[in-house]
Amino acid sequence: MDYPSAKKRRIDDDGFGSVCFEPANDHIPWQKTSDAREDRHLLGSDSQWESVESENHNSIVCYGMIRGLHGTCTKPPDEWGLGACDFSVSARSANEFVAPNLDGPVVVGKFATEFVDMIHELIDEGNLRLQFKCMTTQPTKHQTAKRSRGSNLVIPCSLSLILYGPLELSETVGDFFQEMDLYLQDPEGCDWNVKYSNPHRLSSLALEDCPMTFTLHLGASGPDLATLQHICSNKDVSDIFVAQQDLDEAPQPNAIQSHLKRHQKQALTFLLNREAGWNFDPASADFWDQGQTSETSTFFVNNVSQSHQVEEPDEFCGGIVADPMGLGKTLTMIALAATDALKTNLAPSLIIVPPPLLDTWEDQLVQHVKGGHMKWRRHHQKDKILSHTGLSDYDVILTTYHTVMADWGGGHGLEDKVLFSTTWRRIILDEAHVIRNFHSQISKSVCTLQAAAKWAVTGTPVQNRVGDLAALLKFIQAYPYNDLGRFDTDIGRLWKVGDVKEAAQRLKVLSNGLILRRPKTVIELPPRTDLKCPVDLTAEERTLYERLKNSTISQIEEALNHGSKRPTAGSYINVIQRINALRMMCNLGLHYDSRYEIAGVSLNDAANWASQAQVVFDLQRQMDPIVCSTCNATCDLATAMINCESQGRPLFAQCLSFFCADCVQGYNRRKRTMTCGHSPPHPVAPVSLEFTDLESGPGVLPMSKPLSSKVTALIAQLRRVEPHVKSVVFSSWRMSLDLVEAGLEREGIGYLRFDGKLPQKQRKPVIDEFKRNPKIRVFLLTLSCGAVGLTLTEACRAYLLEPHWNPTLEEQALARVHRLGQQKEVTTVRFYVKDTFEERILDVQESKKKLESVLLERRDDHRSSNSLDHLEDLRRLI
Questions:
Q1: Where is the Helicase C-terminal domain positioned along the sequence (predicted)?
Q2: Rounded to 5 degrees, what are φ and ψ at 212?
């Protein structure tokens, strides 16, 4: 059947120096290609496909859009303009497409080989209408230089396809694409106003209930910018330590070639002053003052507790550098070490870092230090220092927390260990919050080291409770609060009885002279806009969510309705896994499968528990830190970050008792069996603290369904971003990133991925590739890998796929982008699903940011005996 030619209207310059046209919306006939053949049909027999009369639009629907097709474009060299472009094209055959113009086809392209068979079958069905759009980017200098003078330029392109056809064949079309592992998405820019019936999304709707393509209001698809909600900036718990000190600027050390910013020179003044020891002048910020009772008699006043003593306080050199993430603390500490450069007979500075940051520190030293002015080396694995010979030739020694703990070995034979038999010029702990539990072996070993000055560097001196700070004070030897009992007497007892105001005031006085924390406004960073993106579930997704939610509520109520009996550990575990099911479903949508749920826990079944313990352990530590039942050491995400070198595995009991690796090793050395203390004892099983286990999803993600609403919203955001803008996407789970990856593949958006499975030696090359390759637009990271130590200022957009229980971890991740060195305005977007458990997590985050919640946190919050309290709390959240 012959069809009239489509009207065309001029829309804009296409970026190639020519004019683009697209069909006008007032009359859109079918586009039928000239070379349709009468051979076999994959989509069905001839009898299935009725002729489509242009006047009978009621039986015609839009099936949706296929994204991520590839090809190449060819144009004469004088017709390529600047910038990226997207324009309508027509399939001339299964192999080629053209872009029409007034003067004839000026852009000729070829479909990638893997799509030729598919397009061939679609063209053969002459009653289908194929609406193609081609998207190109600015030709690179390499592409331009590669062609010979005067020849046509060939560049890669991506294409999308909107497909129209008879309603009764909607399911057949859906099956055809599903067999090819391609899935129909919501269309954008339809040129015909018909009913939208997507066999992969809306097949359950009657035709009269289907929306019209012109009224989908998708625009760029997904949430419009107007629906994004601004996040009000609330004070962080650590902001109590912010002091308004107008410090002088120290001179720049000669060994540093990078220009120090004003705030870094001021920080250097603070560091050098603190390394000079106590300043008893009442005008200073130190919390010790000196007074006189007579001309010959003096006394010393502790301004925290207002206590007096005759003896001069023990000497203390060092402090805590707690500037927010992104202010260049690493360079500041390198500058401090550089003040000793070229001095003779000085011990080196010992810098202790988590293993992933060893390369980062070495890179920073290379970048910022003048050649020949400082020497450094590692004390790690095969590069350990075995004697003091030549040690003073170095300015900096780099090592890891686990290396220190391994060399310490419980405190035996330290005189033979270089780390412990040396009095270092200074010790610098990077990410110092990892020692915040003073009962842990890492904390004990680090506190044993000797140095003239000790520095704890962390953007989060308080993460979960005020006791986090006590461990740092013990390490830096800030008299008298290096004594944990004294800290508890002067400060801890106040928050125990609820006197928050006085506790906060004492913390402020304590911190003024020994903690350096400035607001981020001390540097001129580009503006950062924080947004929340609420996502609506589809009807099918909502049905699935409500089913999971009701199952969870029933499980909780069953556990709580035991009369006088407390809920069993098994009941609590089953509830926790269902809570996680709700969270995962918000990310995965219809891709969530009940197979991902672990089986109900059978008490005293050791074999069953061995297969379940890791999953339950990961769920529990995502919600709250887990405390060792023997030594009270805390296990959370910060522990996971430094544990990749651990030589032992902790144990986790079915009653939720946890035994850290240090305690397990101690029991093993004494040939004792570790039990939970119950009678009869509950089964125990070894668990891993590493990233890969924390990130793991419970199976392979099936790709037989459309993208979830949340991932669709994310892809829509990424699609509307200009091609030269780089973005970072964070998620707690690799499985969620699998789904995002599928969406990016369909869109033809270049990306790289960094999670716990990426080998250590490949991590730096992957980061470098993201920074330098203009075709890589998106960097996918798991939260546990991306929250610490990385600088990703090449990106200016960051997305958090789901809310995390710990808001500090989220902020650490976002600070990878908004930090010193960022030249562009930054936008962060946090996704959450409306009317789901994710909204409750946001409420929990807000409470954790409040000082009162930190000061008043119960000491026994993480004990298994409180499972009843936890269940009641979770019931309220759901």
A1: 710-875
A2: -80, 150
Write down how long the chain is. Answer: 878
Sign of the Cα pseudo-torsion (688, 694, 699, 700, in order): negative
- Distance (Å, whole) CA 608 – CA 586: 28
The identity of residue 521, as a single letter, is T
Structural Rg of the chain based on CA atoms: 32
Long-range contacts of 623-628 (CB under 8 A, 24+ apart): 623/576, 623/579, 623/805, 624/464, 624/805, 624/861, 624/862, 625/464, 625/862, 626/658, 626/862, 627/658, 627/862, 627/863, 628/439, 628/440, 628/658, 628/659, 628/660, 628/663
Backbone angles phi, psi at 583, to 5 degrees: -65, -45
Planar angle of CA 252, 256, 260, nearest 5 degrees: 50
DSSP sequence for 638-672: HHHHHGGG-SS--EEETTS-EE-HHHHHHHHHTT-
Distances (CA, A) of 698 to 203, 256, 580, 584, 594: 29, 49, 11, 10, 10
Distance CA 875, CA 579 (A): 10
Whole-angstrom Cα distance, residue 30 to residue 661? Answer: 69
Within 180-259, residue ranges assigned H as helices are none
Residues 816 and 829: their CA atoms lie apart, in Å, by 14
Ordered by where they begin, the domains of the chain are 8-217 (no CATH), 328-456 (3.40.50.10810), 598-697 (no CATH), 709-877 (3.40.50.300)
Paired with 627 in beta bridges are: 634
Question: In this structure, which amino acid lies at residue 32?
Answer: K
Classify 726 as helix, strand or coil: strand
Helical axes 807-814 vs 837-848, angle rounded to 10°: 90
Q: Are 822 and 526 in contact (CB under 8 A)?
A: yes
Interhelix angle 569-588/709-720, rounded to 10 degrees, is 40
Separation of alpha carbons 6 and 572, rounded Å: 65
Question: How high is the pLDDT of residue 27?
Answer: 31
* pLDDT number for residue 437: 78
Three-state SS sequence of 486-540: HHHHHHHHHHHCCCHHHHHHHHHHHHHCCEECCCHHHCCCCCEEEEEEEECCCHH
Write phi, then psi, for 301 (nearest 5 degrees).
-110, 125
Question: Which H or E element spans position 177?
Answer: helix 170-179
Q: How far is CA 546 from CA 85, 209, 536, 837, 861, in A?
A: 43, 23, 13, 11, 29
Which of 58, 320, 434 shows the shortest CA–CA distance to 212?
58
**536 phi, psi to nearest 5 deg:** -95, 135
Pair of tokens at residue 755: 């999670």
Residues with Cβ within 8 Å of 177's Cβ and at least 6 positions away in sequence, in order, are 66, 183, 184, 200
Q: What's the pLDDT at 218?
A: 45
What are residue 844's phi and psi, to 5 degrees? -60, -40
Give me the pLDDT at residue 320, please.
95
Flag residues of the chain having pLDDT under 50: 1-56, 82-83, 102, 145, 148, 202-204, 218-222, 225-226, 564, 598-599, 601, 603-604, 852, 855-866
Do the beta carbons of residue 73 and residue 107 sit within 8 Å?
A: yes
